[in-house]
Amino acid sequence: MKRIAVVEDEAYTREELCNMLEKAGYSALEVTAFEDAAEQLTALAPDLVILDLNLPEISGFQICRDLKQTTAIPVLVLTSRDQMADELQALRLGADEYLTKPCRKERLLARITNILKRYEGRSNLLEGQEFLLDRGTYTLYINNTSVVLPKNQGKLLEALLAGGDGLVTSEQLCRALWDTTEFIDENALQVNLTRLKKNMANLGMKQKVVAVRGMGYRLE
Question: pTM of the prediction?
């Protein structure tokens, strides 16, 4: 059974959505604390998120941005905001669909079905800024093309993506490369990082590997 998380602060609307989803054969998960919603959703790992934009404590735009920076979970925005600028902003942040309230049940369920079909088989994907990485094959999907990264580069990019906006230490990168932290071969690590940076630049990737002196590395 597919699991769909509903991020909606209006209790009646949230209850209606959850009832509709369960009648349609989905498992509905309610998110009612919004300040750390992205962290909750990452832990829940639903198959889809239905997200309102007008939320207390934090904007739905921020939740969408945070979620899409670290996961490949699809997001369907369902909001009363009907301005084109809002829709474009949500889509730029990675939203997969944008629907305005009120929305017919049949239309919403059809969009849900379409998104879930598009994402079938993508549970192994990590999402970066305008690219996807298959952690099984280290295939990088970017600019309507795909490139298979060398294994060590794929391992490094996977570790950096898993770190989100946070720092990834040399120890963590060494463990990703060699499955041990008994020793840190800084020279070998630098060689592999340099190759990854060059490959990312050649592919025109917006995110770059940045060193934070004495602390580690992160994607910016």
Answer: 0.62
